[in-house]
Amino acid sequence: MIVIAGAILGALFGAFLAKRRNGKGLDMLQYAAGYAILFMIVGLFITIFVHRAAV
């Protein structure tokens, strides 16, 4: 669940950042994809840490 939330938040943040930097549609798509992947990886590590700490 954290991974999915990270992907959504990353995509929104990336698109917002590209739009703020006066990017066009493809720029916003690329930033959204990049930040979604980054936030998904962070969410994955958080999920692994939480599951290992709970045992």
UniProtKB/TrEMBL annotation:
Keyword terms, alphabetized: Membrane, Transmembrane, Transmembrane helix
Keyword Membrane: yes
Residue ranges crossing the lipid bilayer per the database entry: 28-50
Name of the protein described by the UniProt record: Apolipoprotein acyltransferase
